[in-house]
Amino acid sequence: MNNDTPCITLVGYGTMARAILCACHEQFRFEIIGRDISKAAALAKEFGQTSFGSVGFDGHVFEAEGKNILLAVKPHALSSFRTKGYAQSVMSVLAGVSIASLEKTCPALHHVRAMPNIAAVYRQSCTALFATEKIALAEQLFGACGSIIWLSSENKFDAAMALSGCAPAYLAMAAEALSDAGVREGLSREESIAFVRGLFHGFASLLDKQHPELIKESVASPSGVTIEGVALLESCGFRGALIEAIHRSLAKVRK
Ligand SMILES: NC(=O)c1ccc[n+]([C@@H]2O[C@H](COP(=O)([O-])OP(=O)(O)OC[C@H]3O[C@@H](n4cnc5c(N)ncnc54)[C@H](OP(=O)(O)O)[C@@H]3O)[C@@H](O)[C@H]2O)c1
Predict the structure, then answer these.
(1) Can you tell me the distance from the alpha carbon of 156 to that of 133, in angstroms, rounded to the nearest whole number?
(2) Does the C-beta of 102 come closer than 6 Å to ligand 1?
């Protein structure tokens, strides 16, 4: 890194802040701030960053003039974040916080909403982005976390959030259940989880190239064993449950 390396003020030091640092700490310099200086210092130290502080909260106003800011605190914390000056850019991963709210809280030349997911830790997040004007810094930062998809309208943002941000939990439940199924049928836990990991890994490659319907058709042969399971899952409302889960997550974020 040299003096030309962009510096980003990361507000927050929780799970998502850490995931982004895992992916990007070698490409960018980060100043880490939050309400607890010891937590900010610990995260900065872990990722070889030298700048941290407790400004922005509890009456300590953050001097934002010309800065690039990445908000990664809980959405409700935004109301207590205080800034002064005109930032270069404000990027936010906060669920349910609109561009209009960001503009009110922190004036800047550019405001960007981003919705990464936890796979950013392994640079495999699929991140939804929205801004009135696309900026290269957001593409570089979230591109380093995996792939990016610019949305054409802010209205689509919550749906993308539910799919990309919440679905990892649903897929983790499916993986856990399949691992239990293997154990039930006599595999050891280690064998079972190894098969499930391999399954998800291989499935990701298939999905990259094929439509899900075709993958299902190619596995489920007439009167075969797979279609028995497919029929059972349909009778249990498997697909409807997933559709409804996304719908509920979306409804909650819009509350
Ligand atoms: N985790 C995900 O998979 C994910 C995915 C996409 C987007 N996001 C978004 O990322 C943001 C952070 O989520 P997270 O999962 O990283 O949560 P987290 O691990 O619980 O971290 C929360 C962060 O918010 C700070 N915070 C909470 N209440 C605060 C307050 N009243 N004043 C100041 N700071 C406060 C915490 O500081 P203290 O420790 O000092 O409380 C911490 O830095 C959220 O807005 C969420 O919507 C998360």
Answers:
(1) 16
(2) no
